[in-house]
Amino acid sequence: MTKKKPSRFWRIMRLMFRWSRIAVWLLLLAIIVAVIYVNSIGLPSFLKEPLLAELRERGWDVEFSRMRWRWFRGIVIENATFSPVDKDSQSRFSTTEAELNVDFSRKKDSRVTLKSILIREGEFTATLETNTPPLLLEKIQATIHFLPDDRLLIQPFEAQFRGIHFQLSCDLTNASALKELSFLLPEKKPADASETAVKKWLEMVQEIQFADEPEVTLTASGDLRDWQKMTAELKVGTAGAKTPWGRFEGVGFLGEMNPRGTTNPPLFGLQLSATDSRTRWGSVKDLNKRSQFSLSDLRTNVLECEFALSGNQFRTRWITENATNILRSGKAQISGTTALSLTNFLPLAAATQVQLRQTNLRLQKPGSSNVINAALHQADFAVAYDPVRPNAMDNVEEFGFWTNLQPFTVSGRFDFGRVKDQQINLEKLLVSGDWAWPRVELMDVQSSLYGGESAVRGNLDVVTRELALNVTSSFDVKKISSLLPPAGQRVMADLAWKKPPRAEGDIRIILPAWTDAQPDWHQEILRTLQLNARVRIENGSYRKIPATLASTDLHYSNRVLRLPNIHLVTPTSEAKLSLLADERTHTFEAHFDGTIDPRPIRSQLDPEQQEWLDQVSFVKPPKLEARLRGGWDDVRSLSAEGRFSAEEFTVRGVDFSSVDSTLNYTNFVARFDDLLLKRNDKQIAADRITLHTNRIFFDNVASTLDPMLVADIIGEEVVEVLSPYVFAEPPHVLLNGSLGLQTIDDADMRFQIAGGKFQWGLLHADSGSGEANWIDETLTLTNLHAMAYGGGTLAGNAFLDFSPQVRADYRLDVTFTNVDVQSAVLSLNGTNEVEGLLNGALTVNFADTTGLHTWQGYGRGELTDGLIWEMPVFGIFTPVLNAIVPGLGKSRARSATADFIITNGVAFSDDLEIRSSGFRMQYRGTLSHELEINARVIAEPLRDTWVVGKLLSTALLPLSKLFEYKVTGPAHDPQMKPVYVPKVLMMTLRPFKTIKGLLPDDDKDEIQAVPILAP
Prior knowledge:
Structural class: mainly beta
Number of helices: 15
Largest sheet: 51 strands, mixed
Distance between the termini: 217 Å
Radius of gyration: 67 Å
Strand content: over 45%
């Protein structure tokens, strides 16, 4: 079958198909060749130039080794270096590869649209200063999307900076504004302060050592041309870091910026946390800090900030002049707000609240070993700062350091447990107060210490400088005596109590001028101090002097101290006192009214005063009402007046019923007026007794007491002087004069004495009177008058000198009248057969108390109507005379007279003559102080016979020679020997033997000796 030829149409179609296929293959080959070219060789210039122009439009010039197209990746720039356009900058960004996503569909005027850039292994370098390592970001991995409407999306962006891993994600509008942020691109210019600061910051960052690779994440979105609409978040985290400031563990940081609306400024927030922080300033666990910043809605260029900081186990220390101070807190929280000026970054206002819990504080004063340790259970205080105040002061120079505190207000409360140092030990301390110009308010200061409490409230006005305090105290102030000046410490050392004293009062002080750099605090404070207080002490003591109660109000102002109502109670006495002391004049005035027991003050006296006090004891405490005044630093100005009384007391063992007297003291002189001292029904009354420093004066002291009792009180010397004078009943004594307190050698005492029966040596008197003048070491007795011995009278004077150390010299001048001899002899334990009246006188010119042998003097005696023959010395011839004429030897002597002189205690007389109606007897001889007689006796019988006596005496003259004897031996037993008859002849003459037999024998009874009167 013949084939049918194809039509022309199909031939044409086949031809076209063939050429089309060839064209397609050629096109495919061209594309493959182009792709191979752009992938291997790089993009042609017509493609590079639009891309480079696009990048330049976005602010960057690019230098690269090759720009080519890669399969599935797009345009890749290899070994690219980006630098800012038209800037001589030290900043460079380089990358191994940068993938460009380009939109050619929007090509216009040979330009392309860059959609995104993918950066791999990028590196950013910025050189800040010459010879300084550059700022280097490396291992940059980023995808940057250039979206329509000038929108920039970076997601993600990662980089490494000195071991820190950064991640960035942002979505920004008006992205073209980035090239206007020139501060991000350091230019090549001389280093300024900001570059220096960045350099130092980089150096510090370089010193940081991280425990692991820190993570830094930044997320931002918003309009670059309206930053108030920006939102940003920065997160930083690391397991730990070692920095120049210290070590940190579990570090976390969060920074946020959030818009608050279309019209309100955005908020900036910061949050920092660390599980453990240790720096050279301190350490803290669980640190958490939050801050929030915003521009003020009301004020331009003002940044407002709110912040909060908290932590546990906070510890810090600081060292000043070798003193280490430590603060440990279990928990600390700080929060507040502040406003900063963006023009100068100075604070415009601030408010801060601080809370501390379970805090321990150690403080040491520089240069001192004293350490204060305090346990602070809780502290809450707030501080506010406002530099513009409606009540700000005009003259800031006047207020010194308070000028800096004027913008602040402070309020706080501190609750301490134990506060202890070398000087004070507080068991509890609570302090709360406020400060707001111009006043400091102490709301409450309470403390528990040393077994008591104290509380203080008050305020300080800065303008007037007035400090006002209300203080209540019930603790043992002795425990803090080391804080007092030396004088106060000495006072405290003398005080003691079982229960701490209680005091409550108000204090007001005008402090020194704030501008006074070195004020005289002592004078300034005392000048303006006002004090009103009440003090009460129970069961205390002062210098071991016990007191059951001591209380008083206390007022101090204008440097005048007033204690108007002191109430003092001791175990044995009670008194009310008042005191006014003026510091300006150093004078005081005090009033005492009550009883006072001197025994407790014994330990405060010197040994001599203790000895005086030991001489006195009181059954009942004496009463004293006195007013004292004078200068406390001038004892010469001290004066006192008042009244003293006591009942039932003893002085040197002598009991007294009562004493009462007014008293005055001035110029070291104590005067007792209207003194009345009683002992039962006896008394001493004195117009005045005056005590000088070493002397006592007596004015009209009348006494009915026993003189020996008074002598016992005065002293042994007075007892020795008065002991010879013994009164049966106390005499009436009037005393004037003075006596030394240390010695009686300078006495000047005048006594007028009148009394009943008394004895002085051998003198026994029924009554007597006289005057005694005791001057220095002499005693003069004048106007002595005594009734003695049966109605006789004695009168005379005496003088005694006590200046010799072992004896006393004396003189006597005595006359006696109508002395009954029988009474006198009986008083001397003699015989009662002696009678007669004796008259005479005795003068002792000199004698001393060593014995009668010292007597020198003379005298005369006359006996009338005497019967004296019972005395052996006179009765030796009584038997013989009675033999001649019965009764002749016992006839009364009409008179007996004699004059005598005394030498060395031996009395001599050559005219002793006894006259009797029967005979006359004459003595001539001596009588010693030991009553030894040595005399011649002549008896003349019938010599005094009436009318014929003289004739008989002449007639019997030879017989009278038989009656002349020598008498020797003791006066109570004399020995007689005839003068003219020899003993041999006596033996041969029988008549005379009878006479001799009638004479006294040696074995007769001894007759009591009659001693000579002596003082």
